[in-house]
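Methods: example folding runs. The two proteins below were folded one after another, and each record is reproduced exactly as written to the output file, sequence line first and C-alpha cell line second.
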Amino acid sequence: MLTVLTVNEAQNRVLSSVEGKTVRTEEINIFDAPGRVPAVDIVSPGQVPSFPRSTMDGFAVRSSDTFGASEDIPALLLLKGEILMGASPPAGIEIGEAMGISTGGMLPPGSDSVVMVEHCDILGDQLAVYRSVAPLENMILAGDDFRENEIVLRKGHSLRPQDVGILAALGLLRIKVFKRPRVVIISTGDELVSPEKNPGPGQIRDINGYALFAQVLESGGQPEYLGIFPDSEDALYSGLQEVLSNADVILISGGTSVGRRDVTVRVIDRLPGEGVLFHGVSMSPGKPVIYGTSNGVPIFGLSGNPVSAMFSFLLFVKPLLRRFQGLSPFTSHQPGVDALLGTNFSSPGGREDYVRVVLSRNEDDKSGEKIWARPVFGVSSLLQTMIKGDGYFIVPRNIEGLAEGSPVRVFLF
C-alpha cells in the first residue's frame, strides 16, 4: 500500500531535501553560454557604447542649425567632410557646419544630432537640410546601453542569444556559470531490450531510458544512461553504489510499485544515508513515484509506464535540476493557452489528473477566437497520448469532472 502525498507536498519534500546544498560552478566560453546560468552578477567593465553613435545614415549637425528648416526654406550648412566607419571623426563641427556619417559612426565633437540622408541634398560643398531635427535625434550617447560598473545580467538568469551578444559587446568572452548537474539514468526490467534489438515474446524496447535522457538534456542537465538492469535487488544495489560518488541526481525507471519484483524502494532504503522520503503521489499518471536520498544524492524511482515517468519528471525532477543550475525551481510562467473543454470529462477525484489534449478551432466560429481542448482518450500508458497531444490541463484533486465548454488552462508540450 502506498502512502501518497499531494503534488505540492512531494515537490516541497524534494526541494527541502537539498536545501543548502552547494551548487558547483565552472568557467565557460560564451559560445557555450546559451541556456547556462551566471553564478555571479555580470558587471559592465566600461560604457556601452563607448562613444556617441549615429543610428541613421545622414549628416552630423548641430540641431539648432536646422530649426525652422523646410522644403521651401532649407537650412544651408557647410559640408565639412565625411566620417569613415571604424574611425574617429577628422575634426569637430562648428556652427553652420555638417559632416557625413553612416549608421554606427562616431559623432564628431560639436554635433548633437543626425539629420537623415533622405531629408537633405548635397549642393557642391553645401548641404541643404529640408527638415529640422531635435537635440539627440537619430543618435545614442556613450553609456546609453550600459554605464560602467552597471549590473548587466543578474546571477540566476538563464542566458539567451541576445545576452551572449551583450557579453561580446562588453568584451567578456569567459564567464562563471553554475555547472550542469550530472544525471545518471538506469532502466530496470527483465522484459526490456535495447532499441536496436528485435523484442522476443513478452519483451519490449526500452523507452524510458531514452525519453528521460532527452528530458534531462532539455532541462539543462548532463545525462548519462547506464543501460538496462535486471529485476534484481542486488544488481541494482551494486550499480547504484558504483555511481553514487559521481552523480548529482539518479533516475531509476521501473520497479516502483509494490509487487515482489518491484525492488527500487528496497534498494534506495539499503543505500547509506537517508533512504526513501516518500513513495506515492496523488496524481495520474505517475502515482507510484519514489524519492529518496543517499548521503545527500537525490534518487528518483520513476514508473516504468513512459507517460507516468515523463509527468513525474516534469513535476519533480525538472524543478530539482533547475535548482542545481542556480535557477528558481519553478518558472514564473509556463507556455500555455486558455481553451474550452471540447467534451464532458470525468475524473475520479482525490488526485490531480493530468489530461492530454489536442487543440483546435471550430470552423463555425467566425470570430476564430475560441480554442477547444479535446482530450486524447486512451490507456494512460500509451505514448500516443503524449505524441498526439498539444499539451495538458490539470483537474484538481477536489473536482470529479468538468462539463463541456468549461474553461481550462492548457500547458503546451
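Second run, written to the same file directly after the first:
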Amino acid sequence: MEKDVEIGIFGGTGIYDSGILENSIEVTIDTPFGKPSDSITIGNFKGRKIAFLPRHGKKHAIPPHLINYKANIWAFKELGITRIIAPSAVGSLKEDIEPGHFALPTQFIDFTKSRNGSFSENRRVIHISVADPFCPELQSSITKVAKEQNLHIHKDCTYVCIEGPRFSTKAESKFYRTTGADIIGMTLVPECQLAREAQMCYASISTVTDYDVWAEKPVTAKEVLETLSKNVERTKKVLTDLISQIPKSRGCSCARALEEAEF
C-alpha cells in the first residue's frame, strides 16, 4: 500500500472527484473501524502526492450521520497523509454571509447526537485539546489563495454542526443564531477532531449554499445543489492553487497533539 501520500482531500457535497490528479490509481483500504466512504484516488499534482476521498461516496449515497468518519481518517493516516483539506457545503446564519460566498471556520459548536467522535477506546483515554480546532498553517494558506483569487470569503467563522440529514426547524435555526455562530452544516464534527487525535493538520473551506430557515425561506436540497454546481469549478481552483501554497514541512503543533492528551 502507498505510504508516502502527503495531502488528503475530503470531497464534500457536489465534489465527487478532484479532477486535478495525474497518473491516478484507486485503492481500497480496510480499517479497524470498517470501510471508508469509498475507494481512495491517489495521484500526483505538481510533484506532490495527493489522495481524494468523497466523504458521501462517489454517488452521494451516504448521509452525514452515517459517514464512517473514523474509517476515513484512519485510511488517510495509513497512507501517510499529514494534512487534510476538507471542502464542505454550509448554510448561512448571518445576513452578510450570502449564498455563493465562501467561509473559513475557525471554531465549531457540536450539536450532533449519535456520532463516535474519538479513537479513545480499549483502555486508551485521550483528552484532546480542540480549543483551536484547525491547523493555522493550512488556514493561512487558504486565506492567501482566497485573496489572490479575489474570492468573497468570510474568515474566523463559527460552524454549528448538526446531526442531519434533515434541515433545521425554524425554532432550531433561530436558536443557533443566538449562539453567535455564523454557518451551519452536518459534516465537520467529528471529522476535524478525529484528525486532531490522529495528529494530522486539518482545515475546512465551506461553500455557502443557502440562508438557513431562520430567514423564513425553507431550505431545499435542490437549492443547495444548484448553488454548489455554480461553485464547483471555483472550489476546484482553490484546491489547485492551495496545494502549491501548502508548506512541505509542518511548523504547527498538530503533529504533537497527543503529547499532553493521553493518560
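Comment on the second run: The first helix runs from residue 69 to 78.
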